[in-house]
Specification:
Layout: E1 7-8, H1 18-23, H2 34-51, E2 56-60, H3 64-73, E3 81-86, H4 89-101, E4 103-108, H5 117-125, E5 130-134, E6 136-137, E7 142-143, H6 146-155, E8 159-163, H7 175-178, E9 182-186, E10 198-202, H8 204-210, H9 222-229, H10 242-258, H11 260-281, E11 294-295, E12 299-303, H12 310-319, E13 322-323, E14 325-326, E15 335-339, H13 346-362, H14 371-380
Parallel strand pairs: 1-13, 3-4, 3-5, 5-8, 8-9
Antiparallel strand pairs: 2-10, 6-7, 7-11, 9-10, 12-15, 14-15
Helix pairs in contact: 2-10, 3-4, 5-6, 11-13, 11-14, 13-14
């Protein structure tokens, strides 16, 4: 298989720009020296703008799940109750992590359906110490109500832990305004870097909570990361993945050059173009919305037509050089998903829609091609 001939339209990992790949080929340096401190400081300064926060940001050599575990493990004692909001696969991951360190109190919805905020508030009123929520649940293509959850955690003086792995850098995220105590981003998503890094913002309230936690993780101890941040030469407590730091820095320079607001608008426009194309083709979006729940702006999840499975569509697309994804676990075969994260172009969106229309026409799902790509193009012209 020639990987260079594939167009990756997944909800991560995403295509990596050549200049980022070139940056990763630089020679190794002393990770306790001035050069690395400059790279780390540069990354953190840009990330604060991306996160919309004045809080500390630590970069962990580990994927987004490492950031999720760091957040839960460093703030949770054995007898602490953690509300885990679950309407997709990654919300369930928060539950599994919370049960390792304390007691998970799941607030469950069907995947892709709205969060029951009344249940969240009831559990907070009963004394839960924190709420863990996935902001953008890629498994179902749904954007969850972070602002509203932040209001509830503030009301009950609980910590708010938010997985922003697939929203930060591609959609509006206001860590400080929303009262997010720990927010996690992933390198291989909207920021457009290779996989393997998580960026974690930590509030003063979160640090205070950590002081009373008995059995924090060792490698993922966020207090250890703070100690290293505060040294004369900024560093990580353990050996960092230097090539990934090179790539992250270059990807953040690309973000800066585009402008965070412009980048968010581009991601939103791309997702709107995909949804408009689906409507023109006659395919239904999978998520169910309410006044607080929206479609994801970084990945679109569509219900598969009755006569073909999501896996079939995924395989057909791969044969035509486009990498999309199907549904996970309980949604396998029921949906297919198209990502629009990172350093993509309008052309990438149009090629994907064109190939999808061709596949659906060959399978007899639609009678003619063109409606989807025309609808998408009308939206993309606004960029």
């Amino acid at each position: 298989m020639n990987f260079e001939d594939k167009l990756i339209m997944m909800p991560g990992p995403v295509p990596v720009a050549p200049r980022i790949l070139r940056a990763m080929s630089k020679p190794m340096i002393n990770h306790r020296g001035d050069e690395f401190a400059e790279i780390y400081d540069d990354c953190c300064n840009i990330l604060k703008d991306v996160f919309n926060t004045q809080n500390d940001i630590s970069v962990i050599s580990g994927s987004g799940s490492a950031g999720m575990e760091a957040a839960i493990g460093c703030t949770t004692n054995d007898n602490d109750n953690v509300i885990t909001i679950e309407n997709g696969k990654f919300g369930e991951r928060f539950k599994l992590i919370a049960d390792r360190y304390g007691n998970a109190l799941p607030v469950e919805s069907e995947w892709g359906e709205p969060v029951d905020l009344d249940k969240v508030e009831n559990l907070l009123a009963e004394g839960a110490t924190s709420v863990a929520m996935v902001h953008n649940e890629t498994s179902a293509g749904v954007l969850n109500p972070a602002k509203e959850v932040g209001k509830l955690t503030k009301k009950y003086d609980a910590l708010f832990i938010m997985d922003g792995i697939t929203s930060i850098g591609g959609d509006e995220v206001k860590v400080d305004d929303w009262g997010v105590d720990i927010a996690i981003a992933g390198s291989q998503k909207c920021i457009g870097a290779p996989p393997g890094m998580s960026m974690v913002s930590i509030s003063d309230r979160a640090y205070e909570a950590m002081e009373n936690v008995d059995n924090k993780p060792y490698y993922l101890d966020l207090e250890a990361y703070k100690e290293s941040l505060d040294k004369d030469k900024t560093q990580t407590p353990y050996t960092p993945a230097l090539p990934l730091f090179y790539g992250l820095q270059e990807s953040l320079h690309i973000v800066n050059e585009e402008g965070v607001d412009n980048r968010i608008n581009r991601h939103r426009t791309y997702s709107k173009a995909v949804r408009s194309a689906m409507d023109a083709i006659g395919l239904e979006m999978y998520p169910i919305l309410d006044e607080n729940t929206q479609y994801s702006n970084t990945v679109s999840a569509m219900s598969a037509p009755e006569s073909v499975s999501g896996e079939d569509i995924k395989k057909d697309m791969l044969e035509r050089g486009i990498v999309i994804v199907g549904g996970q676990e309980r949604l396998k075969n029921k949906i297919f998903r198209i990502g629009n994260m990172g350093n993509l172009t309008s052309r990438d969106i149009l090629i994907t829609i064109q190939e999808l229309e061709t596949i659906l026409h060959k399978r007899g799902i639609i009678s003619e091609v063109g409606a989807g790509i025309n609808a998408a193009n009308d939206i993309l012209d606004s960029l």
